[in-house]
Amino acid sequence: MIIRQGDIFLIKVPEKRIPTNYQAHPTTSCIVGYGEVTGHHHVIEKAQWLVDACHDINSLHRFALDGTSPNDVFVQVTDPTQIVHDEHYPLAIPPGTYQVVRQREYTPRGVRRVRD
After folding, report:
1. 4 phi and psi, to 5 degrees?
2. Does the reported pTM lie above 0.85?
């Protein structure tokens, strides 16, 4: 299952795909993409981060800002929720574990992250 909202892709993955050193980081919502052009953020309501034990939550903020991350980025949804953004329709997210991917595009100067 893939959910796409703007430049954010959520790919449902089986629990066994999550590395054993990843731990849940409790939070009420996850900002998976900051709107650097519009100021509107992609937010998954009622979700928690799954974070590599070697990295802190700041690495997730860097991912949300510029798409860079030392490792895969995952969120865990335990109850039905949604991803919201001021310029897109809210999308339903069923319970599960999702890998968060930022869209990139090719330009003659190289690959760059899509800006939303």
Report:
1. -125, 130
2. no
